[in-house]
Write a structure and sequence with these properties.
heterotrimer; A mainly alpha; B alpha+beta; C mainly alpha; A: mainly alpha; Ferritin; two-stranded antiparallel ribbon; 13 helices; 2 strands; 2% strand; globular; C: mainly alpha; 9 helices
Chain lengths: 334, 95, 239
């Protein structure tokens, strides 16, 4: 259950006379469960660092879903057909839903959603840097679906087997729902690629702009990745950044060919020996700069999020006040 | 910023008639009526349910994981509760 | 159904749904709480679905949505009103969904050309009405601030409500009967929300008419400009 506040102190173990020895016993049980590929559940004992790592990762993931609504919502009011408009609205709605699933998962670890949102709004927690790029044309909606969601799915599918139960279950649900996100993006780009010359050019331009940032979504190279090794040991993470990035490139190259679009990398070529595509060097300076806050939309995204939250405060207060007046199981119980 | 932190609710969804409600996840809502409606929008927007329960998370009492052994292990050594415990001569039907 | 589609009525109802759906879509990423992002999008999607069915009875849905000029749209002015704060959006929802629910409920029981659509839509709209009612209660009877905002919103939109009860060619409903049922229903919700039915006139003083006659309010032109620009920039393209 997600009523997590009390769980951390819930150490009423079979008493063995010595607190440290008890913790050591828990730790052995935790390690054994992880080693046996069992799931860790909210009320189980877990190392503080495991809990902190999960909260950080799940929160970042949740924040990415809700900030990620913005670049696509930017086109809802301009979608060029009613069919596309319905698809896009449903997709942006899913992202809000996925944010909610993930915040719930984080709450099982004892951190409330308000606290996490606070950290997002004050810049103490991050979201995926990919959403700091702008959606300049309609084709960007397609490129996000194909490349950004494609990269996200590549990252997320292994998370369905993450050692922490609530996170893994949220990911199962999310991956199931997201399968349409990538396909609609691909279909959108295909329609443009096969459309008028202007539409084709629009699609190519979008892919040119989104390709490299999508590759950066897998995070820094393995030898520079801070948290990777421990996360792998805890089975929060199942594959390394570079491994997943390579998998994504291998998937995308033939898909781009079918689209009739090119990927903006002259070094991209099949490596017979490796059985993979070689690709060019990623501009990690850009990655770190965007991460630090210097991307084209960092300021805009967080400002909009903060404003929505602040302008909504009176609404949330009203509902809580009404509940306090009218219901026994309302906000007063919280 | 006081009092805007809506309480947490656990959501149970019956996916179709004949099945039990199962835990689907949780959400925030100011009261039970909105918890139900938010649950409908969040957990059944692809037709995943025919009935929903919502329960304030604070109202749930859970067994402690540390009681795992006393709580659940005694049940593991009572095989006579399971039908496979009993030997029945071959050919006896409808049993 | 192919024999007698009352074009005027299909456009009126279709445009109502199309335009309100568009306005609700503008909330994406701006809602006061995340749960409400999901709820508003659900309502917008229901309405968009209704719009597509209705417009398709008349012609090509995209041509009708994207290539008509402002004066050719037949939606009531109420649905094109800008979102304003959340109270304005909820007041607009309460006024419109109560009307739509009463209307579709009547259309669903008949054997007219809209009966199949109305039978499906009436269930969707019942939920929209309930959503608006729940929020009206909470905003009206919440804090002093929310009460005042909700009161102002109900007042501000009141003069757009009369138009919904005008006779529409091809719609076999009694406008005055609809109005009194609507007043009773909305009045009851407002009363429970510690608010009162506004007292002013339910329509503006312009004898030329309003949305059903293709006369709209100024923000509508800009809404259409945004909605139509991409489609119109690529004549003949498919998407």
């Amino acid at each position: 259950m997600a009523t997590a506040a009390a769980q951390k102190t819930d150490h009423t173990a079979p008493y063995d006379g010595d607190g440290t020895a008890a913790t050591a016993g828990y730790e052995r049980a935790f390690d054994a469960a992880v080693a046996a590929d069992e799931r860790i559940e909210p009320r189980d004992w877990m190392p503080d660092a495991y809990r902190a790592t999960l909260v950080r990762q799940i929160a970042q993931h949740a924040h990415s879903e809700i900030i990620g609504m913005q670049p696509e919502a930017n086109w809802i009011t301009r979608a060029p057909s009613l069919r596309r408009k319905a698809i896009l609205m449903a997709k942006v709605q899913d992202e809000a839903g996925h944010g909610l699933y993930l915040y719930s998962a984080a709450e099982t670890l004892g951190t409330g959603r308000d606290e996490l949102l606070d950290k997002l709004h004050s810049g103490r927690q991050k979201y995926s840097s990919i959403f700091n790029y702008p959606t300049l044309t309609w084709a960007d909606v397609g490129a996000i679906g194909w490349l950004v969601d494609g990269a996200a799915i590549t990252n997320q599918v292994p998370l369905c087997r993450c050692s922490y139960g609530p996170y893994a279950r949220a990911m199962v649900r999310i991956c199931k729902e997201e399968s349409f996100h990538q396909r609609q993006g691909y279909e959108l780009l295909l329609a443009l690629s096969r459309g008028t010359p202007e539409q084709h050019a629009m699609a190519q331009d979008a892919v040119d702009r989104w390709w490299w940032p999508s590759l950066m979504m897998f995070g820094p190279p393995d030898d520079e990745s801070q948290h990777s090794a421990q996360s792998m040991a805890w089975k929060i993470k199942r594959h390394s950044n570079d491994e997943l990035r390579q998998r994504f490139v291998d998937i995308c190259v033939p898909q781009a060919e079918s689209l009739g679009l090119t990927l903006p990398d002259p070094d991209l070529k099949w490596n017979e020996e490796q059985g993979h595509y070689d690709f060019g060097a990623i501009d990690w300076t850009e990655f770190w700069e965007v991460l630090k806050g210097n991307g084209p939309c960092n300021e805009q995204r967080i400002t909009q999020r903060r404003r929505a939250h602040e302008e909504g405060a009176w609404v949330r207060e009203a509902a809580a006040a009404y509940a306090a007046k009218h219901s026994e199981t309302g906000a007063t119980r919280a | 910023m006081t009092n805007t932190d809506w309480p947490l609710w656990e959501v149970f969804v019956r996916s179709r008639r004949g099945l039990s409600h199962t835990h689907a996840g949780s959400l925030h809502a100011p009261d039970a009526e909105f918890a139900l409606r938010n649950a409908r929008d969040l957990y059944t927007r692809r037709g995943e349910g025919v009935s929903i329960w919502v329960v304030p998370s604070s109202a749930i009492t859970a067994s402690s994981p540390d009681e795992k052994d006393p709580f659940f292990e005694p049940a593991a050594d009572k095989p006579y509760r399971h039908p496979t415990f009993y030997e029945i001569p071959e050919g006896v039907k409808h049993l | 159904m192919t024999t007698t589609v009352p074009t005027t009525a299909a456009l009126a109802l279709g445009d109502d749904a199309l335009v309100l759906s568009h306005r609700l879509g503008e909330w994406a990423g701006h809602a006061p709480v995340l749960e409400e992002e999901v709820a508003l999008a659900n309502i917008a999607l229901d309405l968009l679905g209704q719009a597509r069915v209705l417009l398709s009875l008349v012609g090509d849905e995209d041509e009708l949505a994207y290539l008509r000029e402002e004066r050719a749209f037949r939606n009531v002015q109420l649905v094109e009103q800008p979102n304003g704060d959340f109270a304005h959006t909820i007041a607009r929802q309460l006024y419109f969904s109560t009307y739509q629910h009463l209307l579709y409920d009547r259309l669903a029981t008949g054997d007219g050309p809209f009966a199949p659509l109305a039978a499906k839509a009436v269930k969707e709209v019942a939920y929209h009405r309930d959503h608006a009612e729940q929020w009206t209660l909470r905003l009206g009877d919440g804090t002093d601030e929310s009460h005042e905002r909700m009161r102002r919103a109900c007042e501000a939109l009141w003069r757009f409500t009369g138009e919904m009860f005008q006779p529409v060619q091809g719609l076999d409903v009694d406008g005055e009967q609809l109005r009194s049922a609507w007043l009773e229903s909305v009045g009851e919700v407002l009363r429970r929300a510690t608010l009162t039915l506004p007292e002013g006139p339910q329509s503006g003083a312009w004898s030329a008419g309003a949305g059903r006659q293709g006369l709209h309010t100024e923000p509508f032109g800009r809404m259409l400009a945004e909605m139509q620009h991409l489609h119109r920039s690529h004549p003949g393209a498919s998407w």
